[in-house]
Amino acid sequence: MAKNSQNHFQVLIIGGGPIGLACGLACQNAGLKYLILEKGCLVNSLYNYPSTMTFFSTSERLEIGNVPFVSVSSKPTRSEALEYYRRVVQSNNLQINLFEEVLNLKEDSGQYEIETSKNHYYAKYIILATGFYDIPNLIGVVGENLPKVSHYYKDPHFYAFQKVLVIGSNNSAVDVALETFRKGAEVTMIIREPELGKSVKYWVKPDIENRIAEGAIKAYFNSNVSKISRNEVEINTPNGKITIDNDWVLAMTGYQPNLIFLEKLGIELSKDQQKKPFFDENTMETNLPNVFLAGVICGGLDTRSLFIENSRIHANLIVNKILENLA
User: How do residues 26-83 score in pLDDT, each as one tens digit?
Assistant: First the structure.
């Protein structure tokens, strides 16, 4: 394919979430020619968060590129975050292509050729900031593929006056259980551990504990789902197997990054359970020359170790290394 000069960039950033945008801002401030590619909408992962979500972090800890984030309360909502990141892109005229998925990446004469769902690009440097929200952790039981089962949750009204089973013990599961309960759903929680997750937000934990204690929300601890059918769910509990009536199953079991894509590109992963990608923590460069990682993807399957607030610094580490190479 002929190389169109308009498709040549110094830096190509894969992923248009907050960290991808932070990398774009850092490149722009350094005078580098760059392009951000996002396979979905702007900050696609945040868009897919529950409509009622409130962040655990304060607004200033979600800021990127020294652009102030002003919210009504100290902990911003999903809608405020979407507005903030859209304003960041618009006010800085960030170069980003949306709904364009990267399909392949290969080295070509000292630079990289990037094949997408719409085009081909060439760049000397690649930044992978692809997040982790696209691949849910499956529970692996019969019936998980039924239409009534979802690993994503948008709005509680949909589940009003329905029998809802929530799988999980951390913030997402707790929020879903409380919100659907307050819209009139009959809620049952299935929790593998003997107690709720230690990371449950401190201002929410007493609420869910009290609802469980009074029996308003039924919770089975040390339990797991063994089978899902159209109108029922089978559960393994410490007291034996039980079957309950059910309309909807919301499996809030977490998500994982697309490590298969990293392996396909040739990026090395650790051999332990975390499957952490190899990179230099001082520069974020992987074992592939001039290919960098940024954001939660750096943690492999340990998706709780990195957030927007503690991975914003990746952008400057990467750009500093690129500028050093170009000097």
Answer: 999 999 999 999 999 999 989 988 888 888 889 999 999 888 999 999 889 999 999 9
pLDDT in tens, 226-238: 999 999 999 999 9
What SS3 state is found at 264? helix
Q: Which residues contact 198 (CB under 8 A, 6 or more apart)?
A: none
The torsion of the CA quartet 213, 141, 184, 153, rounded to 10 degrees, works out to: 110
Q: The whole model's pTM is what?
A: 0.89
Q: What is the pLDDT of residue 160?
A: 98
Q: Which of 265, 315, 257 is nearest to 286 (CA)?
A: 265
Residues 6+ apart with CB under 8 A from 165: 187, 188, 189, 190, 225, 233, 244, 246, 248, 249, 250
Which residues lie below 8 Å from residue 202, measured CB to CB, with a gap of 6+? none
User: Rounded distance, CA 81 to CA 163, Å?
Assistant: 32
DSSP string, 292-323: EE-SGGGGTT-TTS--HHHHTHHHHHHHHHHH
3-state secondary structure (DSSP) of residue 58: coil
